[in-house]
Amino acid sequence: MGSTVLSLRIDGELLDRIRQHAARRGMSVQDYVAQTLIRDDFDERFKVAVDETEKFYGVATE
């Protein structure tokens, strides 16, 4: 899979917070943002998969 450039315009204060979070993890801002997006995407797909499985098996969700 190739890579593509994504350009974002964000507030300076938000960028500072992202830099701090990335630094705590020893990551670049780019890697931190990409990993966060990947994690959120996985969490969303996992939740959908669990919901679909529960619907298939008729498990009541609360």
From TrEMBL:
GO terms for biological process: regulation of DNA-templated transcription. This is Ribbon-helix-helix protein, CopG family. It comes from Streptomyces corynorhini.
